[in-house]
Amino acid sequence: GAVVSQHPSRVICKSGTSVKIECRSLDFQATTMFWYRQFPKQSLMLMATSNEGSKATYEQGVEKDKFLINHASLTLSTLTVTSAHPEDSSFYICSADQRGGLNEQFFGPGTRLTVL
Amino acid sequence: DAKTTQPPSMDCAEGRAANLPCNHSTISGNEYVYWYRQIHSQGPQYIIHGLKNNETNEMASLIITEDRKSSTLILPHATLRDTAVYYCIVRVNNYGQNFVFGPGTRLSVLP
Asked: What's the pLDDT band for A99 if we cut at 50, 70, 90?
């Protein structure tokens, strides 16, 4: 089946620094990708919808200036957590739809962010 | 908010069938029932989806009631590797539509 990758798989950074997370669709093109966040023992929460060639759409309560999303190609979306703080520590997961398939959505393996 | 309700947890003996229920009483006519699972510290994995007919694949079977207000995911021979959180989600089958995750059911397969 279709594969979505994320890089890095885990990252530890100091408070105040910025972290970039990449999401790639490896064998299909995705004009739309999604970014989710999952805190411990909670479910996935949608943060934003990433659209190739246009601005991302953010969910209510998600700061667009803090979580920068760039979807510059049909196979790559990036999420940059700017000026990270300990409360941003979470599991970040991306997903993408494979157009023309069964429309099941494929999820990446996730990125564990720890902000010290 | 999620449009489905699931029991928070279930146990199943290894080698037995695991039957995971899901209620979706407000499902719309154009919404599909999707099942995903999430093993600890991994991304969600697609299992199966269906509209109104029962579906089967190499991983599981999906039984949808005639009124479509509930469904059951069946893992025919559960193994220890099936221990995970299972999410039942209703969603229109359109490209570019996100998923809304509820708390899911934590299935523990016991030896």
From this structure: low
Q: Give tens-digit pLDDT for B15-71.
A: 999 999 999 999 999 999 999 999 998 999 999 999 999 999 999 999 999 999 999
Q: Is the Cβ pair B36, A107 closer than 8 Å?
A: yes
d(CA A81, CA B109) in angstroms, rounded, equals: 37
Q: Taking CB atoms and an 8 Å cutoff, what residues of chain B touch A21?
A: none
Task: Tell me how many helices (H) and strands (E) chain A has.
Answer: 0, 11
Cβ within 8 Å, pair B99-A108: no
Residue A56: helix, strand or coil by DSSP? coil
Distance of alpha carbon A11 from alpha carbon A91, whole angstroms: 10
Which residues does chain A have within 8 Å of residue B36's beta carbon, measured at their own beta carbons?
Answer: 107
